[in-house]
């Protein structure tokens, strides 16, 4: 009789995998004696498959909306939202040791977007390391001095020599003139990164009917994009 080895998805062992009853839908369950993982091989619903979560993440980070993802994967919209709501993005780079590196040129900018309607703007403030080409920190909020102060508080752990910004007057009031450079020439990299965000995240694309319906999802999607591309 032919024998099929069942591989544990957690530890990749085959010798200690045994049958462990059936699920509520009747699927055969298995249990690994080594890591005590319980799993099944076949699923009736696409949303329950182990690889579905990563597929949802990949689609969200590459221009697909929640309804697009649900339609392509043949799963419910609520399943997509449940996976995305589990995001726990960082607000500041984790791969930089505080006080260990000097950031020579830090470009700072604010990007406009909105939630539900254009009358409810949601600004993204963030800082970009011009030399290492990575985002250092970000915050969301209205376009005012309070939001900028929150960003500067996150940046306080880095040794930043110069800030490069546009001519928004609030920058002048909060940044020392000796370390502040106002020039469109020196904010080209962060402006280019703004285009990357609008290209990769559908909710930020201009001239479209796609937009965020809640501030929580808005912040989580953008925050997770920055986390996986810059903060790890």
UniProtKB/TrEMBL annotation:
Name the InterPro entries for this protein.
Answer: InsA_HTH_dom, InsA_N_dom_Znf, Transposase_27, Transposase_27_IS1
Q: Which residues form the InsA N-terminal zinc ribbon domain?
A: 1-35
- What keywords are assigned to this protein? DNA recombination, Plasmid, Transposition
Gene Ontology MF term list = DNA binding; transposase activity
Where does the Insertion element IS1 protein InsA helix-turn-helix domain lie?
43-86
Entry annotated with the keyword tRNA-binding: no
One Gene Ontology term from the biological process aspect of the record: DNA transposition
Source domain of life: Bacteria
What NCBIfam families does the entry give? transpos_IS1
* Family under the similarity heading: Belongs to the transposase 27 family.
Report the protein's function: Absolutely required for transposition of IS1.
What protein name applies here?
A: IS1 family transposase
């Amino acid at each position: 009789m032919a024998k099929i080895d069942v591989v544990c998805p957690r530890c990749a062992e085959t010798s200690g995998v045994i049958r462990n009853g059936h699920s509520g839908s009747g699927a055969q369950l298995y249990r690994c004696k080594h890591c005590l993982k319980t799993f099944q091989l076949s699923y009736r619903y696409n949303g329950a498959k182990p690889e579905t979560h990563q597929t949802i993440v990949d689609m969200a980070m590459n221009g697909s909306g929640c309804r697009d993802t649900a339609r392509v994967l043949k799963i419910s919209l609520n399943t997509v939202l449940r996976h995305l709501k589990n995001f726990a993005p960082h607000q500041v780079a984790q791969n930089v040791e505080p006080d260990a590196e000097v950031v020579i040129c830090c470009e700072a900018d604010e990007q406009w977007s909105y939630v539900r309607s254009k009358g409810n703007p949601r600004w993204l403030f963030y800082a970009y390391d011009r030399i290492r080409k990575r985002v250092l920190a970000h915050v969301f909020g209205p376009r005012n001095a309070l939001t900028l102060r929150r960003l500067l508080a996150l940046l306080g752990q880095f040794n930043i020599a110069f800030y490069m910004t546009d001519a928004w007057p609030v920058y002048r009031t909060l940044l020392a003139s000796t370390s502040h450079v106002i020039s469109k020439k020196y904010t080209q990299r962060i402006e280019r990164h703004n285009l990357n965000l609008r290209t990769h995240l559908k909710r930020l694309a201009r001239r479209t009917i796609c937009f965020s319906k809640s501030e929580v999802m808005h912040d989580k999607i953008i925050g997770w994009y920055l986390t996986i591309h810059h903060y790890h």
